[in-house]
Design goal:
mainly alpha, MetI-like fold, 0% strand
Length: 290
């Protein structure tokens, strides 16, 4: 006598599902190839395609702008400044944003002024465009004559602006992660004798940060691209180096080189984010089935 329950799929059903999966892969591949073929035909047959190819994709200009020449900066060398700005800004953003998120969640009337400042900070810097913050910090702080603070290099003001703006966004990501942890976790920690800060540090924050890693990586993909805006303060990073080359040689291949360098950084980060999201989804589905 057998127990009741769903029957296991037979061989014919397994073959049918595999056939449907293979058919879906073929259809998606064919549609992708067709789409890019149409785009290529439109670009090649466009009346000005020859001019565009000469001004944007000339091999000699692509190489010369990449490595640099006498009197002209290298886009590749300037891109290293973008990477440095990104790495330094990321460290300060992670720290400052976490502090803001924690402050916004502190209960009690005594901490109301701190919560108010944290809310005002996030509202302000999420509402003002980054480029305006760059102008105000980069040209306003030097005019205040605050000693060495008013004589920092342009890159430092760029980093400060990026940290101020992105910390507001990342703080909200952190806060969403903290609020996603069920209150029973905090209550259980308090019942074991942990203080509020200990339960936050050892119970709530580890779970919250693990849950928000994918959206954090998405924010940092945007941060990597926005490092190009630091050029408005005079720093010669990849976008500014490409602009200098284009203005000097009357050729825009340098912009293509700069764009490809950014893509080489952002695509691996995007795929890594997708993998983390998929892994988290599988983990949650496995937990639900268990």
């Amino acid at each position: 006598m057998t127990e009741g329950g769903p029957a296991a799929p037979g061989p014919s059903e397994g073959r049918g599902s595999r056939a449907l999966g293979n058919r879906g892969v073929l259809v998606s591949s064919a549609s992708t190839v067709l789409f890019f073929a149409i785009v290529a035909v439109v670009v090649v047959l466009a009346p000005g395609s020859g001019i565009v190819a000469e001004r944007f994709f000339d091999p000699s200009h692509l190489w010369q702008s990449l490595v640099g020449s006498v009197g002209l900066p290298s886009v590749l060398g300037a891109f290293w400044l973008n990477v440095q700005i990104f790495m330094v800004s990321e460290v300060f953003i992670l720290i400052l944003a976490l502090v803001i998120a924690v402050v916004r969640g502190i209960p009690g009337p005594v901490f109301f002024p701190f919560r108010l400042v944290a809310v005002a900070y996030t509202d302000l810097f999420r509402g003002v465009p980054l480029i305006l913050v760059l102008y105000m910090i980069g040209f306003g702080v030097p005019g205040l004559d605050l000693g060495f603070i008013s004589y920092l290099p342009d890159v430092a003001y760029g980093v400060i602006s990026l940290v101020l703006v992105y910390s507001a966004y990342v703080a909200e990501v952190y806060r969403a992660g903290i609020e996603s942890v069920h209150e029973s976790q905090n209550a259980a920690a308090r019942s074991l004798g942990l203080t509020r800060w200990q339960s936050l540090r050892f119970v709530v924050l580890p779970q919250a940060i693990r849950r928000v890693i994918p959206p954090l990586l998405n924010d940092f993909i945007g941060l990597q691209k926005d490092t190009a805006l630091v050029s408005v303060l005079g720093s010669i990073e990849a976008a500014r180096a490409a602009q200098i080359y284009g203005a000097s040689e009357f050729n825009y291949a340098s912009y293509v080189v700069a764009a490809l360098l950014f893509v080489l950084i952002t695509i691996p980060l995007a795929r890594f984010t997708d993998r983390l999201i998929a892994r988290d989804k599988r983990r949650r589905e496995a937990g639900a089935l268990a």
